[in-house]
Amino acid sequence: MTLKIHIDDGAAPYEQVRAQISEQAREGVLPVGYRLPTVRGLAESLGLAANTVAKAYRALEADGVIETRGRNGTFVAAAGAAAQRELAAAAQEFAARARRLGGSEEDAVAAVRDALRAVFGG
Questions:
Q1: pTM above 0.70, yes or no
Q2: What is the DSSP letter of 71?
Q3: What does the alpha-carbon distance between residue 12 and residue 9 come to, in Å, rounded to a whole number?
């Protein structure tokens, strides 16, 4: 089990790093507890600026995919349960806000479908 990241000319490099680590963690290619390379080490191996990898790591940490343990390093977190809890909390917040704005349930569902299409395509 090794981290494999390929950067191409498509999306922003930090987004490619973020997406590939997230996918590998979700699929179990990178198991919970897997120690990721340092920001500087990964940046050097990919030919990227350290700030680019740091930005990806910050986004992954905010998403609950990885956790930084100070000087001990950065590790794949037990993201499944944490991600599900965060998703449920985001849905609750959205539903409450939609209600405060006076939208109907149908309006809220339509807004979510539009947002999902914009993000996931289709």
A1: no
A2: G
A3: 8
